[in-house]
Amino acid sequence: MERYDEIGVGYALGRRTDPRWLAAVLDALGDADPVLDVGSGTGSYQPPGRRVVAVEPSAEMIRQRPRGAAPVVRATAEALPFSLSVFEAALAVLTVHHWTDWRRGLDELRRVSRRQVVLAYDTALHNDFWFVREYVPEVAELERSRPSAPEIAEYLGASSVLALPVPWDFTDGVFPAYWRRPEAYLDPAVRRSCSALAQTSPAAVDRGIARLRADLDSGRWHAEHAELLDLPEWDAGFRLIVA
Predict the structure, then answer these.
(1) CA quadruple 196, 194, 99, 117: dihedral positive or negative?
(2) Residues 6 or more apart from 213 whose CB is under 8 A from it?
């Protein structure tokens, strides 16, 4: 995928496995073996201790996969090079919103696996994130163009949908990961690991960051968001969908 060949440089530095989300993914997979990990990226949520085949279209992301990661096939979700029901489960973690044709990709997941485990997010809740509302509202236009978790769950005919809140000390640098640590967004490396920011106009992001920096310096951000500072976790709309 050309997009991640461009924006994926250094991705593995900011996007690290959070054991709490991994535990939920493993529970959803049950004892499924073998597993297909579609849009695997650097393999952050690759299930250990079982046979896994990864699918990843970006050469840059494949380059960053650690030693010992599952074997990877360079392909897209919309055209999986596997036979009917060859996998017990197909896993897709925060990838469906990047697919060119998400419905076709989900059809392919169903074709090659008996169970589908998809981690996606509710775009409306993402757009209610303070960073979007107050600093870079241009992100909302991008999010509205992406499939939302409820749509994905309905299309798959999901048997369960589990909310995955974001802990305040989350280790995986997804876009809303720093909801209680706003200073992190001042770091260009943090912003580069968030596709929503990497795909938004640099001028819009720069304007928003300048406003955020000023609000942090003045104490305005902390005064207006005091209710967040004692929360252990926050629901940013992430949903673990099982079908």
Answers:
(1) negative
(2) 186
pLDDT of residue 15: 63
Q: Which CATH class is domain 2-242?
A: alpha beta
Q: Where are the alpha helices (DSSP H) in 88-201?
A: 102-112, 123-127, 130-134, 139-144, 149-156, 188-192, 195-198
Residue 239, SS3 per DSSP: strand
Instruction: Please choose, from the candidates 122, 86, 94, 92, the residue with its C-alpha nearest in 3D space to the C-alpha of residue 106.
Output: 92
Q: How far is CA 38 from CA 45, 89, 102, 160, 192, in A?
A: 11, 11, 12, 20, 22
Residue 54: DSSP 8-state? E
Residues in the chain predicted with pLDDT less than 70, given as ranges, are 1-15
What is the residue extent of each domain of the chain?
Answer: 2-242
Are 37 and 72 in contact, with CB atoms under 8 Å apart? no
Given phi > 0 = left and psi -120 to 50 = alpha, else beta, which region is 54? beta
pLDDT at 124: 96
The whole-angstrom separation of Cα 127 and Cα 163 is 17
Q: pTM to 2 decimals?
A: 0.91
| pLDDT number for residue 171 | 93
- Give the DSSP letter of residue 95: -
Show the tokens assigned to 197. Answer: 């920011």
Q: How far is CA 209 from the centre of its chain?
A: 22
